Automatic annotation (TrEMBL):
Keywords: ATP-binding, Nucleotide-binding, Transport. InterPro entries: AAA+_ATPase, ABC_transporter-like_ATP-bd, ABC_transporter-like_CS, ABC_transpr_LolD-like, MacB-like_ATP-bd, P-loop_NTPase. It comes from the Bacteria. This is ABC transporter ATP-binding protein.
Length: 249
């Protein structure tokens, strides 16, 4: 088992943000002794093998590793989409493995943002409406959320707020996808291969954006990537091999 309490990320160069306004008990993402097996009977795979991971508010953690190592399984468990066989997962101080399916779904809507490979935008909605939608489905007593237009400006998309996804580039779609995940002010952001479809320059921009947003808004962000080029923008780097997680930095 590897144990890695990540250091609090320091301020980045050029970071002029005001301090995060979250409550002091906000604790990011903590996974302890997490095990997950896929399949049953004779064909089982140990996708996660005693995984410990602590990602603090404001930190961007990267997870690299070979295909089939368990990276997607880790994101699924961290996001409450899969229940581990053993271990605990706390998000913003709440143990998501100890609550029922309804409470977990609410917690997901309130505290967890997901970013997928290609943005996963809804074709019929403009960039601005992609951000308005999650605000409409948020639990009643959740945070009020960020202003969609201002957030689009923060990710460099203000001038394209009225465009539909088919009129955006891959990098622009990814920016909108990131903004959509952040609009509800999640405590934890889970990002799956955000640069898979992007060229080198665009990849750096996207990961820099993720690091900046996480740092400025106190989000604990976990990014799975095959792209070793962009690791320089991350606060911590972990490697996953055969379901086991090791800290590289
Ligand atoms: N639903 C499932 N049923 C059975 N086995 C599964 C299932 N999902 C994943 N696995 C297996 O669990 C292991 C971990 O898979 P996972 O998708 O988490 O890996 P990964 O590191 O994300 O891979 P990739 O980089 O290719 O996306 C693999 O051996 C995979 O074949």
């Amino acid at each position: 088992m590897t144990s890695q309490a990540a250091p609090a990320p320091g301020p980045r160069e050029g970071d002029t943000s005001t301090p995060d306004r979250r409550t002091p008990d906000h604790e990011g993402l903590v996974m302890t002794g997490v095990c997950l097996q896929h399949g049953d009977g004779s064909e089982t795979v140990q996708a996660l093998d005693d995984v410990d991971l602590a990602v603090r508010p404001g930190e961007l953690a990267a997870i690299v590793g070979p295909s089939g190592a368990g990276k997607s399984s880790l994101l699924a468990v961290a996001g409450g989409l899969a229940t581990p066989d053993r271990g605990t997962v706390t998000v913003a101080g709440i143990d998501i493995t100890a609550v029922g399916a309804r409470a977990r779904a609410k917690l997901r809507r309130e505290h967890i943002g997901f970013v997928f490979q290609s943005g996963n935008l809804i074709p019929a909605l403009t960039a601005l409406d992609q951000l308005r939608l999650p605000l409409r489905f948020r639990p009643r007593r959740a945070r009020s959320g960020r202003d969609p237009m201002k957030l689009l400006a923060d990710v460099g998309m203000a001038d394209k707020a009225g465009r539909h996804p088919h009129r955006l580039s891959g990098g622009e779609r990814q920016r909108v996808g990131i903004a959509r995940a952040l609009v509800t002010e999640p405590s934890v952001l889970l990002v799956d291969e955000p640069t898979a479809a992007l060229d080198r320059a665009r990849s750096h921009e996207i990961v820099r954006l993720l690091a900046r947003e996480a740092g400025q808004h106190g989000v604990a962000a976990v990014m799975v990537t095959h792209d070793h080029d962009v690791l320089e923008h991350c606060d911590t780097v972990y490697e996953m091999v055969d379901g086991r997680l090791t800290a590289l930095t």
